[in-house]
Amino acid sequence: MGVRRRTGGFYLRVNPILCDGFGHCHELAPELVNMDEWGYPIIEKEPTPLSELAALESARYAVRGCPRQALRIERVSEA
Amino acid sequence: MLAHELPRLLFGTPGNPLTLAQHKATFASTFNAESLLGELEASGLTGRGGAAFPTARKARLLREQRGHHKVVVVNAMEGEPVSYKDSTLLSTNPHLVLDGAAILASIIGANHVIVCVSRDNPTAVGHVQRALDERQRGGSKGPEFNLETAPWRYVAGEESALVHWLNDNESLPQYRPQRPDILKLSHRSVLLDNVETCANVGLIGRYGAAWFRTLGTRTSPGSVLVTLTGAVERPKVLEVAPGMTLRTVLNVADADPDPQALLLGGYGGSWLDGALLDTPYDNESLAPLGASVGAGIVVVLGRQGCGVVETQRVVKWMANESARQCGPCAFGLPALSEDLAELSTGSRNSTKALQRLEQRCGVIEGRGACHHPDGVVRLVRSALRVFAEDFKSHSRGTPCLGSRSKKYFVAVPRLEHESELIWV
Ligand code: SF4
Ligand code: SF4
To answer: What is the ipTM, given to two decimal places?
Structure first.
C-alpha cells in the first residue's frame, strides 16, 4: 500500500448542456480552465499527466465545486 | 433496371410514387438475409445525411448489441432549409426506402421501424402514410412500421435530438461524450439512418454490392441526390454519380456556368471558390479544399451576389436555430452573426469585427454538445478563405457592389420570432 505509480493522464470534461457559466471552475482550477467572453469554461484539450498532483487536486476541487455538477474527470492511460 | 444508368433512386416520377404493386414489378425481389450485411460492407455505402459514416459499420455495431429489442429509425427530417432531396425521394420511391429500412431491421435483428418525417412537410407525410397503408393492406411480412411526425427545426434531425424527441417530445440534442454511442429509445437500441441511405440499402439488397459500385468512385460508390439552388434556371433535385466534376453537375441543371462560389453541403457546410468547378464532386476530392458533399446541397452564388452578406444571412438564421442549451453555441453564434453584420455593411467597427471573427471561431469550435456550432464555424472559416478579398474591402469600409444590390442567392427561411432576437 501507499506507493501508487502515477502513469497516464486525465481530462477534465464539461457537459456543455448542464454548464450554466457560473465560472467557479475557472477560480478553482485556473491552470486547467480558461473563460471565454461569455463566461463559459474553455478547458485544456490535451490530457494532463497524473503526476501533476496540484493540477489533479484542483480538478477535483472544480468537480466538487461546480454548482451544476457539469464537470467530470476522465482518466486515460496515455498522458 | 440498368446498372450504369441514372437515375437509380429517383427511378419513376417525382410526385407520383410507385404503388407497392408497381414497385414490386419494377425492382427485383430481395436477397436472402444471410449475406445482407456482407453485401452492405462490400458496397461501401456511406450515410447520406451529411456525416458520410459507413452504413455497414453502424449496422454491425447495432447487430452486436445484446438484447432483442432494437429499432430502426429512418430520418426524413431534412433539417437543411434548402434541401428537398429526401422528400423528393419519398414522393418517388417510398417503398424503396421502406424496403431498405426492413433490410436494416433484419440485419440488426429489429422488429420495429419508425419513419420520422417533419410535420411541416405534409406532402412527404402523406406519401409515407400511403405507402405504409399499402403495405399493411398487402399484409407483407417483416418489421412493424410506424410513422412519426416531429416538428421541423434545424437541429431536430440531429440523431440524438430526434431520438430524444421520440422519447420525450423535445427536439434537443444530447451530450454524448463517448463515441460511438448507441442511442436508446425506451431501452431499445436505435439504428438511425437517413432516407436516402435506406433507399440505397434497398437497392443493394436487391442488386448486390458489385452492381452498386458500378457508379461513383472507389471511396464514394453509388449515386447521390443533390439539391441544386441559387443561380440556376430552376431549383432541382438531381441524382449524380460521385466523381463527376462540379461543372457537369451544374450543366445538368442549367446553372450559371461562371459562378462566384458554391455553397456545398448545407448551412453547416463550406464555400468553394467558383474557379474550382473542375473538382470532382466527391468527398475525397473536396476534402483537401475544406469542403464535403454533406447533405447533398449545392447553392450557386452568382457574380452579382456578395459572399459576406450571404454568409451573414445564413449564420444569423443558424444562430437562431441553436437549441440554446450550451453557452458557446447560444452566445457564440449570435456573436459571430453580429460580427458578420458589421462586416456586411462595412461599418466603422468592421476591422475589429474581422479580427474578432477569426478568434471567436477558434473559441467556439468543438464546445457544443452537438456539431451545430462546428458547422457554423466551418461555414464562416470557409467564407473567410474564399471571400478573403471581399472581407478585406468590407472591413475597409468599402463593401462590394453585390452587398448593396440586395440580390440574394441562398434561400434563408424567415426568422419566426425576429422581434425576440436579442442580437442584430
Ligand atoms: S463551475 Fe460548472 S457550471 Fe460553472 S462554469 Fe464551470 S462547469 Fe460551468
Ligand atoms: S451545441 Fe447548440 S444546438 Fe447543439 S445542443 Fe448545444 S446549444 Fe443545442
So the answer is: 0.86
